[in-house]
Design a protein that fits this description.
Number of domains: 1
Helix content: over 70%
Order of helices and strands: HHHHHHHHH
Radius of gyration: 25 Å
Number of strands: 0
Largest sheet: none
Structural class: mainly alpha
Number of helices: 9
Length: 286
């Protein structure tokens, strides 16, 4: 064996070791960074709850009802059209996609049963949350991030005004209230769209569709879907506000916060949906 071959053999394990260490370091840094970010969001959510309870308990305290109404209109009311549009399209798609396989069993009428339960439990809240993330979540992050960059948040603190109370609380409450309502609206629109295409295109009688839906869908389906929507709204609001408050680096930082808000909100919503589904399955509520 030559000296060159010996050196190559000797240095190869060292290079592999350095590469493995660098990989572990990168993975560890990412995991620790994610855990730190989640901890910051949880702390922000707890502080928002504390300030909300204080504002409700203290009668002399200004609750900021006007600011809350403004945020609900901006986050919720303005999202109704786009949520209804997307939900209606999903209802049409479900009915048309379910018809061929159910025809093979001679059970086309069961479209109403499947769509009703699937939309109330799952698709209505999920579609509404994803649409609200892009429509309002990114906007909230950009707005608060711009306030951080322009030092408006520092101005609030200089005047002894807590940013969490005046910026975070109204927006988080608005996303919770709006998402709860939008989940119901999305479910109803999807069911109505499915009913329309089933009657006009698939030749299913209106009475049959309505009877099947009412017989299959239960109150627990509506309640579990509404519970999911409420949690999804809280996730969207707190993630958007948290990313907005952590903006650094000017306009580029605002753009990064907006992108991070959309990505993190969608991932958090899907994970929360999975957790809820597993819990409801364990409790035999599905």
């Amino acid at each position: 064996m030559t000296l060159h071959e010996t050196d190559t053999t000797t240095h190869r394990p060292a290079r592999l070791t350095r590469a493995a260490i660098a990989t572990l370091d990168a993975v560890g840094s990412r995991v620790l960074g994610t855990l730190s970010h989640v901890g910051d969001l949880l702390l922000l959510f707890v502080n928002a709850i504390v300030w909300f309870v204080k504002s409700v308990a203290d009668r002399k305290s200004k609750r900021g009802n006007a600011a809350l109404v403004v945020q609900i209109v901006r986050v919720g009311v303005r999202s109704i059209f786009i949520v209804s549009l997307v939900s209606g399209c999903v209802g049409l798609i479900l009915a048309l996609q379910l018809a061929p396989p159910l025809d093979g069993f001679g059970q086309r009428d069961l479209i109403a049963n499947i769509v009703g339960v699937a939309v109330l439990r799952e698709l209505g809240p999920l579609i509404g949350a994803i649409v609200l993330t892009g429509f309002a979540g990114a906007s909230i992050a950009a707005e608060i991030g711009t306030m951080v960059v322009s030092e408006e948040v520092e101005a609030l603190e200089a005047h002894a005004l807590n940013p969490i109370r005046f910026l975070v609380v109204p927006r988080v409450i608005a996303t919770i209230v709006s998402m709860s309502a939008l989940g119901v609206i999305a479910s109803l629109v999807s069911i109505l769209a499915s009913l329309t295409v089933s009657v006009l295109v698939l030749d299913i009688p209106v009475s049959t569709y309505i009877d099947n839906t009412l017989n299959q869908a239960k109150l627990v389906d509506f309640l579990t879907g509404t519970m999911k929507a409420t949690v999804f709204g809280a996730l969207i609001g707190i993630i958007a506000c948290g990313n907005g408050l952590k903006v650094t680096g000017g306009a580029a930082g605002v753009g990064n916060a907006t992108t991070s808000t959309v990505v993190q909100s969608v991932v958090a919503i899907v994970i929360a949906d999975l957790v809820f589904t597993a819990i409801f399955y364990a409790l035999k509520l599905v």
